[in-house]
Structure formats: C-alpha cells, structure tokens
Amino acid sequence: MIAVGAALAVALASLALLLHGARIGYWPRPPAVAPGTVRHRWFARLALRALVHFGAVTVLLLAALGRLDAVARFPPELLSVRALAVAWIGQPGWEPLALGALGGVVIATVLERRGRRVTLGDLRAVTPVCRAELGWGVLLAITAGVAEELFFRLLLPLLIAIVSGSALVGFAGATAAFGYAHRYQGWRGVLGTVIAGVLLALVYLVSGRLWAAMLVHAAIDLNGLVLRPVLSGKLAKPSLRG
Q1: Is 203:86 a contact under the CB 8 Å cutoff?
Q2: 188 pLDDT band (50/70/90 cuts)?
Q3: How many CB atoms lie within 10 A of CB 154?
Q4: Calculated CA dihedral for residues 128, 134, 136, 137, nearest 10 degrees
Q5: How many whole angstroms from its chain centre is CA 163?
Q6: Measured CA distances, 56 to 104, 211, 213 (Å)
Q7: pLDDT (tens digit, 9 = 90+) per residue, 4-20?
Q8: Helix (H), strand (E), coil (C) string for the chain
Q9: What is the dihedral of CA 73, 77, 8, 50, to 10 degrees?
Q10: What gap in Å lies between CA 216 and CA 98, rounded to an integer?
Q11: Which of 46, 49, 59, 175 could serve as 197's disulfide partner, Cβ 3.0–4.6 Å?
Q12: What is the 3-state secondary structure (H, E, C) of 120-168?
C-alpha cells in the first residue's frame, strides 16, 4: 500500500508540474507569433509533454509496481465499476458508445462546415492555424489518445482505487483530474472534457479494452485538430519566416 501511495503521489506531482510548470519556466507559454507562422517548436513540446507526463510516467510507475499487465488485461481492482457500467448499459459491446461519440463528432463537423462553430472551450493553443501545422495536429491527436488514456483511464483510477478501496472513487477522481488538466480551455472546456472523460471511461469499462478508449479519444481529437480546421476554410498560408 505504501508503494501504491508513493506512486499516486508521483503521478499527481507529474500532473501538477505539467499544468503549472510555466510558472517556474519548466514549460514555455504559448508563443505570440505572426499569422501564418508555423509553430513547430510549440507543437513538438506539446507532444513531448503528453509522452513524458502521461505516457512515460504511466509505464514507469506500473512497471515499478509490477502491474504492466494492466495495460493489456483489465485490472481486477476496477471490476466493481465495470459491473455497474455493464448493468447500466448492457453487454452488447463498446461499439454503440464509440459510434455515439463519433456521431457527435460528425454532427459538429457538419455544423462547422455550415459556418456554425460548436465548441465548449478555447482550443486556440492546440489547434493548427495553417496547413503546415496539420501534421502536428495528427501527431497531437494520436499522442493524446494513447498517453492520456494510459494516465487518466488506467493509472489514476487504479492507484486511487487501491489507496481508497473504491473503484468508483478512482474513476471519479481521475475524471475530475482529466477535466482540470484541460483548464486552459476555460470552464466550458473543463465541463466538456469531464463529459468526454465519462464517455471514454464507459468505453473502457464496457469493452474492458484500453485500446478502445484510445481509439475513440484519438478520433475525437483528430476531428477537432485536423478535420474541423480544414473544413472551416480559415487556415492561413504559412509564413516564409516560419
């Protein structure tokens, strides 16, 4: 239990450093650049942040605890919440949840195409503003889909569940942390992220497969960071100085 508590403290410290590191110069703030300038360094840092603070931290802590198997096999400590999710939704599989999430993505994209912007938060810091940044959008979407699911749908729920003795508390705490981690989007972004976190947790719980939640997460982010900017028709031309 002491080892798990220490691992939880390290995970939360890593999250805090990521969120508040700009205050001590650990991570730079979003750069002020001329319209059309390609922000290569900024997007590379965003991807690195997710890989280090979510992906690497999860793998290292699970390995230290001898629980790397939890990546491929659903942890027994979380089975009680999975039973609740299955009892509520049923056992047809995770596909309906995934289709529902992707259906919402398609609707938002269609509305974007028609000139009606649908967003719950301020995504300017992570959204490509020119075509030369779209590749970075793809990288960020995939990186977030994998690394954030490792951290917020597996590591935090598992550690909190073991320490608190409640899998439900584990997922509730992890979902709250997931929302807080997106506070740069404003309160609407936090609310939207919490809702998305609940949906992604349900995909994981009903399917019992972490990769299913990763797939849905990456698809949602690919829509927001790549498809919607393209369909909006507002992408700037890259600056020659970029």
Answers
A1: no
A2: confident
A3: 22
A4: 70
A5: 23
A6: 31, 17, 18
A7: 999 999 999 999 999 88
A8: CHHHHHHHHHHHHHHHHHHHHHHHCCCCCCCCCCCCCCCHHHHHHHHHHHHHHHHHHHHHHHHHCCCHHHHCCCCHHHHHHHHHHHHHHCCCCCHHHHHHHHHHHHHHHHHHHCCCCCCCCCCCCCCCCEHHHHHHHHHHHHHHHHHHHHHHHHHHHHHHHHHHCCHHHHHHHHHHHHHHCCHHHHHHHHHHHHHHHHHHHHHHHHHCCHHHHHHHHHHHHHHHHHHHHHHHCCCECCCCCC
A9: 30
A10: 6
A11: 175
A12: CCCCCCCCCCEHHHHHHHHHHHHHHHHHHHHHHHHHHHHHHHHHHCCHH
Q: What is the pTM of this model?
A: 0.86
Band of residue 214 on the pLDDT scale cut at 50, 70, 90: very high
Which residue has tokens 């280090």? 52
**Count of all residues that appear for the chain in the document:** 242
Joined together, the tokens standing for residue 60 give: 């290292």
Burial track 27-59 (b if 16+ CB lie within 10 A, e otherwise): beeeeeeeebbbbeebbeebbebbeebbbbbbe
d(CA 182, CA 176): 10
| Alpha carbon distance 201, 223 (integer Å) | 20
